[in-house]
Write a structure and sequence with these properties.
It is a single chain. The chain is mostly helical. Helices cover 80% and strands 2% of the residues. Helix 1 runs antiparallel to helix 3, helix 3 runs antiparallel to helix 4 (113-146) and helix 8 runs antiparallel to helix 9. The longest helix has 43 residues, at 233-275. The chain is globular and about 65 Å long. The relative contact order is 0.16.
């Protein structure tokens, strides 16, 4: 889920050219490849291959738990969790196997530009939809905390699902169409459309996350203080409901922070490549694949954290596993 690029085939050379925001490399340059790259590629291919099945499996369980339960899928928060699980499921089902195939072909020198193009397009799609979903999720929490009356009257699971589908389609359509056009006419600007989408989404995430985190922290302290005194039952119930919403804020912030940590190697590598054009060939050949593997692994680690933190997701998965085992 971590690529902000698209690619095209340079027919005159027969090479695949990718406008990635990470160090570029020539996959056909077998002479200048460092010897250390081969065991590294083999390890990364094996790691992604092993992770692909549990990544797809656990995210499929989360989707199943939310979709099957009417009460869960009526919640906008749970719909967005399931939407994130969909993008992570695709990482395990499509992106990691494609990545393994790409590395295997590079190791055995049977590389084809179509393999690289397929991987780039898949990661472009998942990266875009994931970041947009994060933006929608933080905006949902912002409305729930900062404008509770509006949220209760207007925000439903069905509406959030429709909005998510629309934003997904718009993100994919605009990014791929614009990038394809620019690859042909303005290749140096090929990354711009996707970067605009990512930048706007990140700004929304930062604003909403910081705002609701501060509000939730302040109001949790007030509620804790008020609960020490005698209260009316209805007032107490309202405060309990607010605490539930604040726990969801904490879960959303945790997911965002964890995703940022997994993207951090890619961000650091991008900055180094942008500032230094004389990076060593070892760095050039190793960095991109290691960074992409980190981003792939977030699709496994974050759903595990999600399952451990949310009791109803954990219990739902447990029940599904019991159904599988037949006990």
């Amino acid at each position: 889920m971590a690529n902000n690029s698209t690619s095209f085939v340079d027919i005159s050379r027969g090479h695949a050219v990718c406008f990635m925001s990470v160090p570029t490399f020539d996959p056909y340059d077998t002479i200048n490849r460092p010897d250390s790259i081969y065991p590294n590629w083999a390890f990364l291919a094996t790691l992604n291959g092993i992770a692909s099945l549990p990544t797809a499996f656990i995210n499929a369980l989360i989707i199943w738990v939310v979709v099957e339960n009417k009460n869960l899928r009526s919640s906008a928060f749970n719909v967005l969790l399931a939407s994130l699980a969909v993008t992570d499921f695709l990482v395990g089902l499509l992106i990691e196997p494609t990545y393994c195939l790409l590395l295997a072909c590079l190791l055995n020198e049977c590389y084809s530009p179509c393999q690289f193009t397929a991987y780039v397009l898949l990661t472009l799609a998942c990266c875009g939809t994931t970041v947009v979903t994060f933006a929608i999720a933080t905006a949902e929490r912002y409305l729930a905390i900062e404008h509770p009356n509006f949220y209760l009257n207007n925000v439903t699971g069905k509406r959030v699902l429709i909005a998510t589908m629309i934003f997904w389609a718009a993100t994919l359509g605009i990014s791929i169409a614009c990038s394809t056009f620019m690859n042909k006419n303005h290749p140096h600007l090929a990354k711009v459309p996707f970067m605009v989408v990512i930048s706007v989404s990140v700004l929304i995430i930062l604003y909403c996350t910081s705002k609701v985190q501060l509000t939730a922290y302040r109001q949790r302290k007030d509620i804790a203080h008020q609960q020490e005194s005698t209260q009316q039952p209805d007032k107490h119930q309202q405060q309990e409901n607010r605490l539930v919403e604040y726990k969801k804020v904490s879960m959303t912030v945790t997911i965002v922070v964890m995703s940022f940590l997994f993207y951090m190697p890619l961000i650091i590598t991008t900055v180094i490549e942008a500032l230094r054009k004389d990076v060593s060939r070892d760095f050039k050949y190793h960095a991109v694949f290691v960074c992409l593997t980190f981003v792939h692994l977030q699709s496994l680690i974050i759903p595990i954290i999600l399952s451990l933190r949310l009791s109803y997701i954990r219990e739902g998965i447990k029940n599904k596993l019991v159904c599988f085992t037949g006990n």
